[in-house]
Specification:
This protein is about 85% helix and about 0% strand. By secondary structure, the chain is mainly alpha-helical.
């Protein structure tokens, strides 16, 4: 019975998510400012085409993400049943290092300023440092939490590897003692 309640809630969520009267008001807003409804529709079509091309790329990225998660789950259980548990963590570490190396190989697209002058790296660094000095909360969020989470993740991964090695050694000793 509780499942049926959830289904009705899902129907209600879908209904209210799609009920967007602001869409009509947006058209009226632009019409009051000199754009005809046809111009607004054309503008929305151009915007939708731009968004659609972005969503295609984003969809492909999600496919790779989903496929890698499925492969990791299937291979992880298979490898854990045939080898030491530690192997999965080493493969994960190698995978993250490959990901990091590929990230470092990304090329930043060329950006032109309004004056078509190239900015020196010193100027970028100076502007960034000024921005973060002026807004301490942003730097805390960007660097503090990210560093904290990275540290916690690394410590947890190292703890898992240590624990698995210790248990594996303990298991092998028990096996040797019972075999004698």
């Amino acid at each position: 019975m509780k499942n049926m309640d959830n289904i009705w809630k899902l129907y209600a969520i879908r209904f209210f998510h799609s009920l967007v009267p602001a869409y009509v008001i947006e058209r009226l807003f632009w019409e009051q400012r000199g754009m005809t409804i046809q111009m607004v529709v054309y503008t929305e079509i151009i915007y939708a085409i731009t968004i659609q091309s972005f969503e295609k790329v984003l969809g492909r990225l999600n496919v790779f993400d989903f496929a890698s998660a499925i492969i990791a789950a299937l291979c992880g259980s298979l490898l854990a049943s045939r080898f030491d548990f530690e192997l999965n963590y080493w493969i994960s570490l190698i995978s993250m290092l490959v990901s990091l190396c590929l990230t470092l190989m990304l090329v930043e697209p060329a950006v032109k300023s309004n004056t078509d002058e190239s900015m020196e790296i010193k100027e970028y660094v100076r502007a960034s440092l000024f921005f973060f000095r002026k807004r301490r909360g942003v730097s805390l969020v960007l660097f503090g939490y990210r560093t904290l989470l990275s540290g916690v993740t690394a410590v947890i991964a190292a703890g898992f590897i240590y624990q698995l090695r210790r248990e594996d050694t303990h298991f092998k000793r028990r096996k040797e003692l019972s075999g004698r």
